[in-house]
């Protein structure tokens, strides 16, 4: 026996709402016997009666009452899917969840939002900001559709687009002799008290790799995911941090912090645009991806040329 069609389920809901075959027939402008046959077919497919027949019309029985909200919700989902499909055929629409590395989010979010709103008014952006480790997890779990994040130089992911690279500096308080130099060799970090973001934090692996190679001890004294708090600790608690130079350009210029490039080796991170592998990207997601790629490339280019500073850590 064939399962009830989508239209038959719509009829079931309509009869339940109106409580009358006569009223349902009038609403549909069809003969009542035709609807009676359709209702009988629905009940046969379900294996029993769904309505109680009475002098005042039809009323859902216990089985029908349990079924009714599930059918109504299912029909609403089907309608939304149909609307989305029609929108995709005409112009990209729907919700796209974008995660942005915190160092890029204030400026990049504005540029991306403006471009999406102008070109694709049917697309709704959901914006999130965070550190790379957390963003990578959210992409892997499908919590965000795509994310701009940073990776180690040797990392590679099949569903990502390379954007560029950023260099890292050691940051200390004003008057700090270590960061007063033109550069700081990685080996000089031996025992230096460091504040780093909490795990998952992919940059940990790079730091530990080079610490082992240089035979030094990394002295992580605190983990902190908020860059403002990291900067406060650097200014007041005698700790240091390794972060993207753009993250502290404004504070260094104002004399609030000191920073020196880390060398031997120079610590660099790749900036990539990663797409969730849990589902195929929608047309809306593909358009947002193109806009983010263009905007992020421009931001990195201006950073390399000494443009406007970003406001957070690129790790």
List the helices and strands and how they pair.
Blueprint (H helix, E strand, L loop, with lengths): L5 H13 L2 H8 L3 H15 L4 E4 L2 E4 L1 H29 L3 E8 L3 H15 L3 E8 L1 H10 L4 E6 L8 E13 L11 E2 L7 E4 L6 H12 L4 E5 L3 H10 L4 E4 L4 H5 L4 E6 L4 E8 L7 H22 L11
Parallel strand pairs: 3-4, 3-5, 7-11, 8-9
Antiparallel strand pairs: 1-2, 5-12, 6-10, 6-11, 6-12
Helix pairs in contact: 1-3, 1-4, 2-3, 5-10
Descriptive notes:
- The structure is a single chain.
- The chain is an alpha/beta fold.
- It folds into three domains: 6-89, Winged helix-like DNA-binding domain superfamily/Winged helix DNA-binding domain (Arc Repressor Mutant, subunit A, Orthogonal Bundle); 94-164 and 270-304, 3-Layer(aba) Sandwich (D-Maltodextrin-Binding Protein, domain 2); 166-268, D-Maltodextrin-Binding Protein, domain 2 (3-Layer(aba) Sandwich), CATH 3.40.190.290.
- 44% of the residues lie in helices and 23% in strands.
- It is built from ten helices and twelve strands.
- The strands form three sheets. Strands 3, 4, 5, 6, 7, 10, 11 and 12 form an eight-stranded mixed sheet that branches. Strands 1-2 form a two-stranded antiparallel ribbon.
- A hairpin with a 2-residue loop joins strand 1 and strand 2 (57-60).
- The protein starts with 5 loop residues before the first helix and ends in an 11-residue tail after the last helix.
